[in-house]
């Protein structure tokens, strides 16, 4: 793909996991290295088998590095599963699949966090080692944990999303710890950059991937102060999500699973919403 002659200027992309990561990859292909900063949701992070797991950061890392599993969208391509087989033989939990190569990411991140490194510093070293040219930042280095309330009470996001395969109806969502989370300083710097040309909200699930980012104190204000336009790309095409439970969750939480509903959720943050041509009728709404 030819590089679009990108005038000088930087772009900040806000992204969750799989759907958003594909647009982040596209942006990284048309923008000169050093012109793109990708800000990742960390609300999906959790501890599993004693390991610090950061799904959205890792999906972005692997996708931008060209090593993501092309079918699943998460984890690494050409993966082997010796660890999971051995874990199963020992009666360990296998609902959250960790490939052998992916396991190294979690083990090394856990080791470095325990040694006092920040998630930002760890992920920045990982992305450089994997040859990723753009900056990859967590929304905060402080812990934020998305939890959903279902009929059985409050459960961790990965329990809902993976173990229960999004089956239970969602009654409420919370981003535990977000009130105390400080925005990652380099994110604020990127948003205040005089050369900023655009902020792109990638087509991730607004409820679980983008709103945790917007909920970090100071980020909405930093976006409102942006001199560049903030443009969201709708994660819905024809009322259906490209990936994941977006439409189902929007319906369960009383939001309309359509572009007008998406625009309402981002009201006050975005200057525009990119929708699919098949949804052209939504444009005037
Ligand atoms: N998603 C699944 O549906 N099943 C899994 O076993 C699974 C394992 C997994 C391991 C590492 C990782 O970074 C992501 C993983 N995911 C898995 C995806 C993950 O739950 C989602 O990508 C995000 O949390 C939502 O965007």
Structural description of this entry:
By secondary structure, this protein is an alpha/beta fold. The protein has one domain (11-282): Rossmann fold (3-Layer(aba) Sandwich). It is built from eleven helices and 13 strands. The strands form four sheets. It has a six-stranded parallel beta sheet with strand order 5-2-1-9-10-13, with helices on both faces. It has a three-stranded antiparallel beta sheet with strand order 7-6-8. Helix 1 packs parallel to helix 2 (55-65) and helix 4 crosses helix 5 (119-129). It is globular. The mean pLDDT is 94. The structure holds ligand FO1. Ligand FO1 is lined by residues 16-18, 44, 55-56, 58-59, 74-75, 96-98, 102, 158, 161-162.
SSE blueprint:
Layout: E1 10-15, H1 18-30, E2 36-40, E3 46-48, E4 51-53, H2 55-65, H3 82-89, H4 100-114, H5 119-129, E5 135-138, E6 145-150, E7 153-156, H6 157-163, E8 172-176, H7 185-192, E9 196-201, H8 206-215, H9 219-224, E10 230-233, E11 236-237, E12 240-241, H10 246-252, H11 259-265, E13 272-274
Helix pairs in contact: 1-2, 4-5
This protein binds ligand FO1.
């Amino acid at each position: 793909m030819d590089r679009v002659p990108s005038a000088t200027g930087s772009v900040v992309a806000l992204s969750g996991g799989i759907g958003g990561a594909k647009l982040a990859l596209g942006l990284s292909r048309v923008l000169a290295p050093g012109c793109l900063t990708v800000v990742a949701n960390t609300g999906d992070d959790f501890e599993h088998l004693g390991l610090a797991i950061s799904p959205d950061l890792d999906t972005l890392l692997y996708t931008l590095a060209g090593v993501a599993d092309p079918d699943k969208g998460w984890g690494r391509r050409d993966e082997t599963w010796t660890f999971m087989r051995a874990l199963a033989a020992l009666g360990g939990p296998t609902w959250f699949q960790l490939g052998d190569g992916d396991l190294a990411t979690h083990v090394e991140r856990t080791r470095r966090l325990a040694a006092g490194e920040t998630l930002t510093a760890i992920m920045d070293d990982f992305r450089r080692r994997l040859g990723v040219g753009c900056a990859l930042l967590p929304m905060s280095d402080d812990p934020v944990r998305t939890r959903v309330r279902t009929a059985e009470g409050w459960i961790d996001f990965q329990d809902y999303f993976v173990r229960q395969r999004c089956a239970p109806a969602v009654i409420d969502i919370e981003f535990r710890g977000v009130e105390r989370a400080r925005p990652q300083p380099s994110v604020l710097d990127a948003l205040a950059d005089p050369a900023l040309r655009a902020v792109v909200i990638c087509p991730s699930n607004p409820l679980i991937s983008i709103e945790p980012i917007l909920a970090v104190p100071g980020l909405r204000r930093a976006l409102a102060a942006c001199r560049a336009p903030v443009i969201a790309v709708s994660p819905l095409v024809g009322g259906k999500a490209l990936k994941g439970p977006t439409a189902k969750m929007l319906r369960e939480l009383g939001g309309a699973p359509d572009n007008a509903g998406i625009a309402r959720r981002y009201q006050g943050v975005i200057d525009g919403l990119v929708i699919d041509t098949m949804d052209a009728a939504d444009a005037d709404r």
